[in-house]
């Protein structure tokens, strides 16, 4: 009976010191980070088809096509697991790779502006629409992650929950810094406003 009473007091004490709040915050971070990864993966999955359709009209733009392919390979080489948020260096590398992917896709879309027939291609325009939607979802997921991490980190640093965090080895989680946020906050430009000349009639 005495042991059960001690266990009950310990549980009550941990709850009062924010243990449950810390655990809840950690789970929220995992969920929001999983959504970030999901949307980045959705974007990566669009890249091969995007490269192939551009290659069909602009095969000589080898440098840009190679840059996009290489950027996707670098992203895929990183083990984007939920535990990534516990490794600040790995987190930075992942975000840097995503920034390079964004830049490479932007250059690819800029090249497309020089090829009216490519811009008129139905598959290309469909991929553009999917890319635009994905970039918007990435922004939403990323902002949700930032807010979730901010709330959790405040809890980890605040008294008395900071004592509980130290007791269980819970540390602050990495978030998007000003530098890498600027690098990836500008999604690739997808412009549907420019008129597309009709394709030349077949000879």
Using the 3D structure, state the CATH architecture of the domain at 46-149 and 176-184.
Up-down Bundle
Mean pLDDT score: 83
Radius of gyration: 23 Å
Question: Which superfamily, in CATH terms, is the homologous superfamily of the domain at 46-149 and 176-184?
Answer: LemA-like domain
Model description:
- With 203 residues, this protein is mainly α.
- It has a domain at 46-149 and 176-184: LemA-like domain (de novo design (two linked rop proteins), Up-down Bundle).
- The protein is built from 8 helices and no strands.
- It has helices at 2-16, 19-57, 62-77, 88-112, 116-120, 122-157, 161-167, 178-184.
- It is elongated, with a radius of gyration of 23 Å.
Summarize the structure.
The chain is mostly helical and 203 residues long.
Q: How is the topology of this model organized?
A:
Layout: H1 2-16, H2 19-57, H3 62-77, H4 88-112, H5 116-120, H6 122-157, H7 161-167, H8 178-184
Helix pairs in contact: 2-3, 2-4, 2-6, 3-4
Task: Kindly list the characteristics that best describe this protein.
de novo design (two linked rop proteins); mainly alpha; 203 residues; 8 helices; disordered N terminus; disordered C terminus; single chain
């Amino acid at each position: 009976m005495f042991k059960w009473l001690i266990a009950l007091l310990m549980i009550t004490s941990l709850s009062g010191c924010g243990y449950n709040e810390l655990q809840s915050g950690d789970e929220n971070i995992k969920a929001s980070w999983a959504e970030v990864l999901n949307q980045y993966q959705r974007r990566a999955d669009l890249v091969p088809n995007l490269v192939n359709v551009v290659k069909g009209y602009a095969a000589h733009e080898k440098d840009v096509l190679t840059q996009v392919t290489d950027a996707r390979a670098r992203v895929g080489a990183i083990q984007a697991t939920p535990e990534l948020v516990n490794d600040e260096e790995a987190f930075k590398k992942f975000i840097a790779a995503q920034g390079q992917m964004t830049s490479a896709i932007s250059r690819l879309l800029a090249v497309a502006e020089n090829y009216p027939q490519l811009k008129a291609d139905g598959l290309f325009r469909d991929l553009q629409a999917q890319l635009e939607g994905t970039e918007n979802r990435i922004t939403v997921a990323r902002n949700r992650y930032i807010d979730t991490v901010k709330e959790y980190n405040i809890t980890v640093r605040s008294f008395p929950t900071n004592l509980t965090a130290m007791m269980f080895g819970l540390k602050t989680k990495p978030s998007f810094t000003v530098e890498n946020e600027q690098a990836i906050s500008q999604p690739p430009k997808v412009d549907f406003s420019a008129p597309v000349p009709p394709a030349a009639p077949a000879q």
